[in-house]
Amino acid sequence: MPKVTAPLLSFDARGQIGKTQVYSSWKGRPYARRYTIPANPQSAEQTLTRNCFSFLQATYKLAPPLFTAAWESYIKGKVLTSRNAFTKFNLPVLRGEADLANFQFSPGSMGGLPPTSVVATPAADSLSVAITVPSVVPTGWTIQAAVAASIADQDPDTGVLTTIVAGEDLTAAYVIVLAGLDEVLHQVGAWLRWVRSDGIIAYSPAIVTTGTPT
Description:
By secondary structure, the protein is α+β, with helices and mostly antiparallel strands. The protein has 3 helices and 13 strands, in the order ββββαααβββββββββ.
């Protein structure tokens, strides 16, 4: 039987009733759904989805704040966690792929304008990421920082190297050194953090390149 709060007025209910309905809440919002016994399919397609999902969840869990900040900004006003937003963007474009070429580093928020170009120059155990910013910007907008991040390229279905390295530069010309990298191909994303004319922080979508540290 479900447990209820203020039963006469039915403010809240938790649990299943008569194996027909289930009552619960998510992020403070009550909901009801049909009672079902969870299935556990092991088809090749389902396994592919689960593996990629697990890879993305682990990747985000280990990601540094400079990376997750753009996703936190994206979810403001939405009934969604930043990790689930990250997975929602990346799962459709990475599932079934052999690499991370379509990896989404930043979804963009509040209308932030993206960089015009990014170049990753290899160095010893590092990549030097040069970011070119737009020459024309909205009136009153300023760039607070350019941000870059890298992840070792891999198959998201079997990948285990989930560490993201990120850095930022607060002044032009925007060059960010991502250090401590393995000598393998890396996907590199670059995006901008803006202060709009109304004082709101905006993030741009990321543009992507690759680089292999020496």
